[in-house]
Amino acid sequence: MIERLCEAIGYPERIPEGGASAVLRVDGMEIAAEERNGGIILKYALTEDEGLFQPLAGLAAGRMLKEDAVLSSEPYSGGLFLWQAAPAGTGAHGLLRLFETFCDSCDWWRERVGSIGEATPKAEPGQVIMMP
Predict the structure, then answer these.
(1) What is the chain's mean pLDDT, rounded?
(2) Are 47 and 113 in contact (CB under 8 A)?
(3) Domain layout of the chain by residue ranges
(4) Rounded CA gap, 113 and 53, in Å?
(5) Which residues of the chain have a pLDDT value below 70?
(6) Close Cβ partners of 57 (under 8 Å, ≥ 6 residues apart)
(7) What is the predicted pLDDT for the residue at 120?
(8) Burial zone of 5 (CB within 10 Å; 0-12 exposed, 13-18 middle, 19+ buried)
(9) CA 40 to CA 15: how far, in whole Å?
(10) Over the Cα atoms of the chain, what is R_g?
């Protein structure tokens, strides 16, 4: 299925045949593609900055109404990532559409990470907040 995805999107690099996973480098992003139960799952690591988790999670419900990509967390690595899946039997056009919409979602979320990250105050080492 990964080979079919790469063919559908015109991916220029060669990936190992028969592999169950691959990392596709597109527009400055590394998107993981994984075969599962005959379908495919795309994943993109968004951030490991725990200070961004709550503000980003607040945006997730509204985005679920507009896109199929889902914001999730990795319980052991501590990061947020996006994922989107296509079932087994998805044709070339469906795989192309999946990849395009997923990349669009990644771009939107990357912009939010950047803007929220810039607005989130960072404590300087040794800085103490005093309560009155």
Answers:
(1) 83
(2) yes
(3) 2-106
(4) 10
(5) 77, 117-132
(6) 71
(7) 55
(8) buried
(9) 15
(10) 18
For residue 87, count other CB atoms closer than 10 A to its CB: 10
CA–CA distances in Å: residue 117 to residues 2, 28, 72: 33, 19, 18
**What was the pLDDT predicted at 126?**
45
Q: 50: number of CA atoms within 13 Å, CB side?
A: 4
Rounded distance, CA 91 to CA 94, Å? 5
Q: For the full predicted model, state whether its pTM sits above 0.85.
A: no
Q: Can you tell me which residue has the tokens 């810039």?
A: 118
To the question of domain 2-106 being in CATH 3.30.300.20, the answer is no
> What b/e sequence results for 30-47 when a residue is b if at least 16 CB atoms lie within 10 Å of its CB, and e otherwise?
ebebbbeeeebebbbbbb
Which pLDDT value is given to residue 17?
75
d(CA 101, CA 111): 16
Angle at 4 between CA 105 and CA 97, to 5 degrees: 30
Alpha-carbon separation of residue 50 from 38, 75, 106, 120, 123 (angstroms): 34, 12, 18, 11, 14
Whole-number Å distance between alpha carbons of 19 and 34: 9
